[in-house]
Structures are given as C-alpha cells and as structure tokens.
C-alpha cells in the first residue's frame, strides 16, 4: 500500500515526519520571552515619558470609545489621553487661575 501525503488517518505512517510550523529559534521558554518583552516595553514607555494608568469603565463606554477612536484613526489610549487633556485644559481655564 502506498503512503498518500494527505492521508492522516494512519498516523503511524507519519510518526517520524516533521510537521511544518514555526521553528524554535529562541532558547527561552515562551513565558520567559513574554516577561522579557514586557520589561522591554515598560522601559520604552518610560523613556517616552508614558506612565500606566488603569481604570474600569462599563462596556457601553468602551464600545463608544472604540468607535470614536476608529473613526478618528487613533488608538483608544490616544483618544482617552486627548479627551483627558482637553478636559483638564477646560477645567484650568474655568477655575480662574489659567495656565
């Protein structure tokens, strides 16, 4: 019986065959790679003057932010920052002290 390349029901015929896929090029585990990547991202953000702020808002507000960000071709984070800065500027202008 000939071995058909598309036949995967007789797995014993393919036991020694290497499956196609992404080769492992990094000796570190995936978990370690993620930890290093996150550390590097935090360093890049710090150099750029960015600080992390976490907040919880309802799903309706998130959906509205996503839609508005998409329409303005911004990330949601960029949109939230613009909204906050505009509101802070407005607040400072109305408190009588100005900038």
TrEMBL record:
A GO BP entry: regulation of DNA-templated transcription
The Ribbon-helix-helix protein CopG domain, residue ranges: 51-91
Annotated InterPro entries: CopG (IPR002145)
The protein in question is named LexA regulated protein
The source organism is Acerihabitans arboris
């Amino acid at each position: 019986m000939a071995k058909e390349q598309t036949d995967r029901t007789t797995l014993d015929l393919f036991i020694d065959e290497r499956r196609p896929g992404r080769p492992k090029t990094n000796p570190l585990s995936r978990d370690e790679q993620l930890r290093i990547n996150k550390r590097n991202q935090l360093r890049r953000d710090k150099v750029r003057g960015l600080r992390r702020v976490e907040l919880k808002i309802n799903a309706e507000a998130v959906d509205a932010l996503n839609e508005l960000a998409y329409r303005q071709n911004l990330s949601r984070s960029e949109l939230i920052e613009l909204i906050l800065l505009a509101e802070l500027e407005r607040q400072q202008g109305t408190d009588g002290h100005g900038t």
